[in-house]
Amino acid sequence: MEIVVVGAGALGSLVGGLLSGSHDVHLLGRGPHIEAIKKNGLTITGITEKHIMLPASDNTGDMPHNPDLMIFTVKAYNTREAARVTHDLAGPRTRVLTLSNGLCNTEILQDEFGTHRTISGVTSMAATRLDDGVVVHAGVGQTVIGRPDGKIDDDVREIAEVLSLASPLTTSENMCGVLHQKAIANAAINPLTAINDIPNGELLEREDLREMLEAIVQESVTVAESRGIILPEEDVLEYVLEIVRNTSENRSSMLQDIDKRRPTEVDYINGAFYTYGKEVGVETPVNLELVRAVHKIEREFD
Ligand code: PAF
Q: What Cα–Cα distance (Å) separates residue 221 from each residue in 146, 169, 269?
């Protein structure tokens, strides 16, 4: 399959690197990381040890037209722009899949590429960028994909088979619930690790943080359920704790953003639960506190 990874940072490079060899993968990204891959190839270390030479560029003109699959792993706040910039790459056979964190990516891809092309997804794989051209495969996590309308068609089945080379894979007829549940995990793990500058696993070692984590999960589950979302797991807290255990060594994507003094996705994760909470009359003081705390850190970048 011909695949373009749009937004080849830590996660995109890891997914692309794990699929390359079996598939014709092209990485589209930016900056010194992509320059290093162009020159020296991509190194994956950690759970997987691999060095791969694969095409990488910051220019859509270097990407194949009409690829079978475009996988979006951009930051949530870049999904719209990335979709616009890559719009003309999509041809009759192209399917587009989002694996980005946050709650609005599927709708944006539907808008830009059409519902017939769009497949929704979440992944709990953990990836850290160690250096330019080097990513750590820091945690094995489940990937779930499906159509926004719940249909499991041949496209979904084919893409699921391809992606199962990168991580354990399931398909779902309830992607809305899956997306909300994963966003709850990100709402609980990412800001707490970012604010406290700790790997995911330390959330289980400190009682105060563990209590905060439980409060965020409870608050966000209430928001999701009040919006009529059916969360796939009965015990969402246990689902979140399982992700923490499986990615205990990882520095969350929000912490990596802070490390690199980049804007975070907090508005698309905790901010989304705050906004949705307001719509359905559910108070979300813990999510709001975390949004404010992360913004405070971001302001200190200037
Ligand atoms: O955003 C992240 O860091 C990841 O989604 C996850 C699974 C929480 C691992 O750190």
A: 21, 24, 13
Of 185, 186, 156, nearest in space to 172 by CA: 156
> Catalytic residue among 151, 182, 260, 296, which?
182
Confidence at residue 131, expressed as pLDDT on a 0 to 100 scale: 97
pLDDT for 180 equals 98
* Contact in structure between 21 and 33 (CB atoms under 8 Å): no
Cβ count near 181 (within 10 Å): 23
In whole angstroms, what is the distance from residue 237 CA to residue 184 CA? 9
5-8 CB contacts, 8 Å cutoff, 24+ apart: 5/29, 5/70, 5/71, 5/73, 6/70, 6/71, 6/72, 6/73, 6/74, 6/82, 6/86, 7/72, 7/73, 7/74, 7/75, 7/78, 7/82, 7/100, 8/33, 8/34, 8/37, 8/56, 8/73
Ligand 1 neighbourhood includes 186 CB (under 6 angstroms): yes
pLDDT-based confidence at residue 302 (cuts at 50, 70, 90): confident
Q: Is 200 in the pocket of ligand 1 (CB under 6 A)?
A: yes
Query: Of the candidates 143, 140, 123, 124, which has an alpha carbon nearest to the alpha carbon of residue 46?
Result: 140
- Name residue 6's beta-bridge partners: 28, 72
Domains of the chain: 2-173 (3.40.50.720), 177-299 (1.10.1040.10)
pTM of the model: 0.96
142 close to ligand 1 (CB < 6 Angstrom): no
